Amino acid sequence: MDHSIHACLLLVILQITSIAAVTNTVDVSALNALKHAWQNTPTNWVGSDPCGDGWVGINCSDSRVISITLSSIGLNGQLSGDIQYFSELQTLDLSYNKDLTGSIPPAIGNLTKLANLTLIGCSFSGQIPDTIGSLQELTFLALNSNSFSGKIPSSIGNLSKLYWLDLADNKLTGPIPVSNGSTPGLDMLVKTVHFHFGMNQLSGTIPPQLFSSNMVLIHSLFDSNQLTGSIPSTLGLVKTLKAIRFDRNLLSGTVPSNLNNLTNLSVLHLSNNHLTGPMPNLTGMNVLSYVDLSNNSFDATDVPSWISTSGSLTTLVMEDTQIQGAIPPALFSNPQLQTLRLKNSRLNGTLNITDFSVQLQLIDLQNNSIQNFVESGVYHNELILLGNPVCEGTGATASYCKSGQSMSSYSTSSVNCVPVPCPSGQSTSPNCKCSYPLMGTLFFISPSFSDLGNSSYYEALEGSLMKSFGTLQLPVDSVSLSKLNWDSNDYLEIWLEVFPSADDRFNQSVIIGISSVLSYQFIEPPPHFGPHHYLPYCSDSSVNSMSSVSLGIIIGAAIGGFLVLLVLTSAGFYAYRQRRRADRVINQNNPFASWDRSQSRGRIPQLKGVRWFSFEELKKCTGGFSEDSEIGAGGFGKVYRGTVASGQQVAIKRAQQGSMQGSGHEFKTEIEMLSRVHHKNLVCLVGFCFEQGEQILVYEYIPNGTLMGNLSGKSGILLDWMRRLQVAVGSARGLAYLHELADPPVIHRDVKSTNILLDERLNAKVSDFGLSKLMNDNGKSYVTTQVKGTLGYMDPEYFMTHQLTEKSDVYSFGIVMLELITARKPIERGTYIVRVVRVAMDKTRDLYGLHELIDPVILSGKTLEGFEKFVDLAMNCVQELAANRPTMSEVVKEIESIMELAGLNPNAESTSTSGTYEGPSKGTLYRPYSNEFCDYSGDYLPSIVQPH
């Protein structure tokens, strides 16, 4: 990547250009049209001269608008065709405004001078217009992380100056377009350096024509699609390639033998395909660092010699292959090696670790045939030999014959200072200053290393970020990295906090600058990090409403002498009003100032970016909490649907007097829990209200209600077997995040089908954290608690011993899995679903003989692929002893393997929508958030605590 090009590009984009004349009238009209089409535009968008008045995000040259850069400011609305009237526009960046929806207007093709089109992380949908191929000056095109559908426009092949092409993380379908006579295609992009197409639904083969020797491509990233056929040998002609990701597709055939011609290649991901033939020979690829060939069907072969001689290798992953024989001892002494994962293969003989690299953090050799183990000294890092014959005896290997423990992870520490306590909502920077940081997640797509604890990597990344912010003179005090994690796509996630140096929060102009640094890949991390994308966590508290210096302030300063007398005579009155205003702001920013400590057990909630709503605001957006707005009810009170001032639809849970939340403890717990955890399979807390005796929680609106309600059939949505597997894996991922990746880890304690909600695409979201508990500091020890939960879902070991662990959630999730199979309540007519299934199971029969228990909806003439494995997993989850149950991460992996068996891509978002189905019959009142919404026979069993 040429960072000097990026630096010049970004400086041009963000420059503040001097104005020689008032703004062109056509540009003024077009900006006003955008202003009327959008909500939450910058506060200084007033007046008739945007260039002269310095409108935030608008840069001009000689009275013409040349740049519109409005990332991360909360814009709401659609991109109208009025955009076409900016005839001199060179940059359009609307990234990270998740409430920007609709399609890209075809009229965008009229912007003939546009060089940079960046719409990352919004909610745009529909097809990418063919007219985008008319933008002949385009060098940077980033439309990733939206909901674009349809085919990749072949007209993109006309963009001869294109340097960066990123269409990843959308819903694009169809084949990869290549040129054919008069039709252009991606093979024509010989000057393009980056192809980012991962996490879509592309199908068909990879055309050999796509690659050629005159390309300068560095990244070819097509992971997590539905591509078929073989890898074309023409790939080996692109000598400039540094990273290849074809993993998580449906590719077959042999790996091209000329792949080792790619001597600049650092990262190679070919896992989770159907590749056959000999194991690829990667000899001579001297800078190859990260290799993953797992889950393919290569021919049985001895351990390849190249893995011992590749001196740059940091990570080797060859799980579920037919690799056999003894591991060469020289492999462990590779000076760069950090991770070796060869489980579920045919390795045998003696494991000899007498000499190993100080970098080596993990050796995972589970489920092989290793018979002996020899070591010199003690290997202190993680070695897993579980499932090998060597573990059948006792001795030196005993400590290695069990599941591994989590590895260390980097987190930015304080810099020669003592952290200070900060006001609610603020955080302490590494320089021990309190402020509202700009927060978000960096996703590194193809890093060439795997060590999450190597401080030198991440300190270098921090330095690169600070250098980039400093180059643009952005007022950044420091940055903090934490919560490092490999996600399900093998992307490296890093939680990033950027702290302001001047005020306690950034203004909008600075936020736009920081977002642009991250959007345009302006940072220069060590080369092993590779490209990234950024997902901000938006919080009003991180934004200073004073987004720019207005013209009025400038004029006021110029005539300040004239106003001295007036200021002096009114100083007392002004000070009084300012004091009252400050008091109001303090009360709004600290709505728990009056929190009853006797009821909240002595602490006020510690919040992270959750918005406070006034009671009057919520009353207004629900029509006075009218019956027409009611969408659910339970022992806690009622749930209402409303639309807040920003236009976002929300579900508003209002506690009634004497409900579970009346004590305040569960109310505070749920606010704190949901403000700390962020995952696509967890319900997002938008805000709360705590005034006038009210306790109200405001969530994102999840339109299709509870899993229990949908299993009953009354919602009008029929969940077939495939959709139930998607619900299972989604909710399992949410729980696995709570157990293993939340900081600190969380035990939900009330997992049940009424606490799993389905969004518009039937993706599962775990909800309701009122009973949740934080794990102990070591994340593994039990927590002794007062027993709470719901009968039928409760872990019997927890009920008897009062010792709560994450395995209690696993038990409850096993009950949910049985509900997915049977659509029955956990307890009805005095019988318990676990016992009923266990007694009826006959493993010698088809579907284990459970035909009479299986929900008829999923027995509608279709084969239930993976059903028996699903039942086995559910029954393992409900083992009486917690030690015998799997972890939630193991549950996730097993459900993913079941989905693959059923022909589903476990990493693809559900393509189902509730709009496919008819709703409830006319006259039926469907309340998707009501816990009483069910049609099971028998009495409804009350919870130990009221359902909430």
Structural write-up:
The chain crosses the membrane at residues 551-576. Keywords: ATP-binding, Glycoprotein, Kinase, Leucine-rich repeat, Membrane, Nucleotide-binding, Repeat, Serine/threonine-protein kinase, Signal, Transferase, Transmembrane, Transmembrane helix. It is found in: Membrane. InterPro entries: Kinase-like_dom_sf (IPR011009), Leu-rich_rpt (IPR001611), LRR_dom_sf (IPR032675), Prot_kinase_dom (IPR000719), Protein_kinase_ATP_BS (IPR017441), Ser-Thr/Tyr_kinase_cat_dom (IPR001245), Ser/Thr_kinase_AS (IPR008271). With 948 residues, the chain is of the alpha/beta class. It folds into 4 domains: 3-320 and 333-349, Leucine-rich repeat, LRR (right-handed beta-alpha superhelix), CATH 3.80.10.10; 427-544, Alpha-Beta Plaits (2-Layer Sandwich); 611-700, Phosphorylase Kinase, domain 1, CATH 3.30.200.20; 707-916, Transferase(Phosphotransferase), domain 1 (Orthogonal Bundle). It is 20% helix and 20% strand. 47% of the residues are buried. Mean pLDDT is 82; it is low at 1-20, 545-576, 581-594, 596-604, 658-663, 914-926 and 930-948.
